[in-house]
Every structure is written in C-alpha cells, then in structure tokens.
Design brief:
The complex is a heterodimer of chains A (219) and B (138). By secondary structure, chain A is mainly α. Helices cover 80% and strands 0% of the residues of chain A. The relative contact order of chain A is 0.16. Classes of the chains: A mainly alpha (219), B mainly alpha (138). Chains A and B meet through helix 1, helix 7 and helix 11 of A and helix 4 and helix 5 of B.
C-alpha cells in the first residue's frame, strides 16, 4: 500500500504532468506541420475577428443552433465541463497538496461545493452514457474508445467522493483516485479528450472559413 | 498527638490525587487526537493520534523529533519544545495554512519516509473519531 501510494504521489504524478504538457505540445506542433503540408491556406485565412466570433457563440450556453436544438444535452454538457474543471482544480485538499509540494497556492472552494460538483459530473457522465447507447445517430458513431474515455473521466470523481466520505475501503479508493486521475491527465493529448487543446483552434478555423470565406455563420 | 483515622484517610486521598495528577501530566496516555485550538473553524475532523502508543510503535524516545526547536533555520540539538503550542512558531498572522503544512510535513512526511503509518487524508482525519479506533493499530 505504501509503495503504491509512493508511486502514485511521486513518479506517476510527475509522469502524468509531463505527458500532459509534452503530449499537448507534440500534438499541436504535429497538427501545425500537417496543416502546412495539406492545407496551407489555413494560415492565410485564419481570422482573429471571425475566429473569436465563432468561439464566443460556442462558449455561451444556447449560443449556437445545435445547442438550441438539444437543450438537455446543452445543459448537461455545460454543467459537466464547468464542474469537471472547477471541482478538481479548486478543491481544498488538492490546493493544499500542491502548496505542500511546490509552494504554489491559489483560491479554493468549500468542500460542500466540490462534493455537489462531483455528483453533477457523475450524473452528466451517466447522461452521456445513456445518450451514447440510446441515440441511434450517436451510437452508430461510437467505438469502445468513446465508452472508455467516459469511464476514464468518471473514475476520479467516483473514487474522489468515495475517499472523501470515507466509505468502506476508502484507502483503496484513494489509491485508485490518484492513479485514475493521473491516467486521465496523461491521456488528454492522446484521446478524444484532446478537444481540450484543439477546441479553440478547430472552432476558430470553422469561424474563419464560414465568416471570411463563405460570409456565413457557423453557429 | 494521635491522628484521627479520618484525617489519615484524607491525607492518603490527597497524596493519591497528587500522584494521579502528576501521572496525567507526565504521561500523554490521554492524548488521542491532535486537537489544536489554533484551528478555530476546522474543515476536517481532528487527526487521530494516540501519543504513547504511537511513540512505542515508532520507537521514538527523543521528544525533540516532533517537538523540535529551530534556531536560525537550524534544528537546535538537545532542545525540545513540549508544552509549547505548535502555532506559536508555525502561524503567520491569522492564517493556519503554515500550521497545516507543518503538521502534514511532520506526520505524513515521516510516514512516507518510513513507509509506515497513515498517509491518506481520511486515514488520520477519520470521521469515526478516536474512540472507535481505540485499541486498534496500536
């Protein structure tokens, strides 16, 4: 147990952060090189005005037509994204651990809020899972990787709640919490979770293409 | 002068009470948790800590391992700080953050080093309280 904890708290945590940062940089550079080779016009047509206009519409709830057509998905999706980022980054226990390790600290939210947010994330994951299985147009496009990513995202939140509330076996839940969180961070650049890094770019690309070239909206 | 049996009894009771009081002061047997009053609004349950059982198990005879004294950034050999509140040195203003860091560093740091003892949040900050765990893991 101590060896596992030591690995999860030390080398694995460092590896996860290195893979996240290095992997993201690698994917960005490779995408840039690919675009230069296959679609060099992108660099000329990329427009800050239309790029940010599109980003804005897609970052505001119900700001795009697709969102208005699917209100339940829109609400679940926005709640999910806000909670999945805010809860782990501003959790008091996480802020403390980082402060103790690296002497860097930032604001934190009350434990009760993080608790509720974790429940929201898990509920949203269940919603996404049911949608993926029941909605024909989504299930047709789904592979095992999409389900795996969903499980990967839910795992740290389930085990985090387990550990926090000290349910039976919470010592194991704590270890799994650390390991699954690290696996999640490390897999961001190499799975569909890479939309975290590519979303601003693909959105700006579409916005520029539709705004500057076709004189149309893309939301 | 002959002492009355009543006064002998009273005298004996007084001696016994003094002995018990001294025993309680000398021994930390009654310490079951780290309940530092510096934390006026704690967010987690006080860490469970059976002082004497812990030190027997960890083989700690030297009080200054935990109750240390630092002078000029260096640990003062031979000096110890029992009876002094940790918060006297480890608080900066009203923030308890340095105190938390000191406790975590002292307890978890040593446990990590020795690969023994609790290291996860809920293992020390147990919601069940010391009574539920008394006699276990000693």
């Amino acid at each position: 147990m101590h060896t596992l904890y030591y690995l999860a708290a030390g080398p694995f945590a460092i590896a996860a952060f290195v893979l996240l940062a290095g992997g993201s940089l690698f994917r960005l550079v490779r995408m840039g090189l690919l675009a230069r080779k296959k679609d060099p016009a992108v660099f000329d047509y990329m427009s800050a005005r239309y790029g940010f206009r599109s980003l804005f519409h897609w970052l505001v709830p119900f700001g795009s037509r697709g969102m208005r057509l699917h209100p339940a998905l829109t609400i679940a999706s926005f709640l999910f994204h806000v909670c999945a980022i805010v809860a782990p980054v501003f959790l008091y226990a996480h802020v403390l651990l980082i402060d103790e390790s690296w002497n860097i600290a930032w604001v934190h939210i009350p434990d009760g809020a993080a608790d509720a947010m974790s429940l929201v994330v898990i509920a949203a994951c269940v919603f996404f899972l049911v949608r993926r299985m029941k909605s024909p147009e989504v299930s047709y496009l789904s592979t095992w990787r999409d389900y795996a990513v969903l499980a990967l995202v839910a795992a740290p939140f389930v085990t985090g709640l387990w550990s926090f509330h000290q349910f039976p076996g919470f010592r194991y839940a704590g270890i799994i919490h650390m390991l699954s969180g690290e696996l999640l961070l490390a897999s961001i650049p190499f799975t569909r979770l890479s939309h975290m890094i590519f979303f601003p770019i693909t959105r700006a690309y579409m916005g520029s293409e539709f705004g500057a070239v076709r004189n149309a909206r893309d939301w | 002068m002959k002492m009355k049996p009543k006064s002998i009894l009273a005298f004996l009771a007084l001696v016994l009470a003094l002995l018990l009081a001294a025993g309680a002061v000398m021994s930390q047997e009654d310490v079951k948790s780290v309940n530092d009053p510096a934390f006026t609004s704690p967010t987690r349950p006080a860490p469970i800590f059976f002082h004497d059982a812990h030190n027997a198990k960890a083989g700690l005879d030297d009080c200054s391992v935990c109750h240390h004294v630092y002078e000029g950034g260096k640990k003062a050999e031979g000096a110890s700080s029992e009876g002094q509140a940790c918060s006297e040195c480890h608080m900066k203003g009203k923030s308890t953050r340095p105190l938390i860091k000191a406790y975590h560093g002292m307890c978890r740091g040593c446990h990590e080093e020795r690969k023994a003892g609790p290291v996860q949040c809920g293992e020390c900050h147990s919601k069940r309280g010391p009574e539920a765990l008394e006699g276990r893991g000693k």
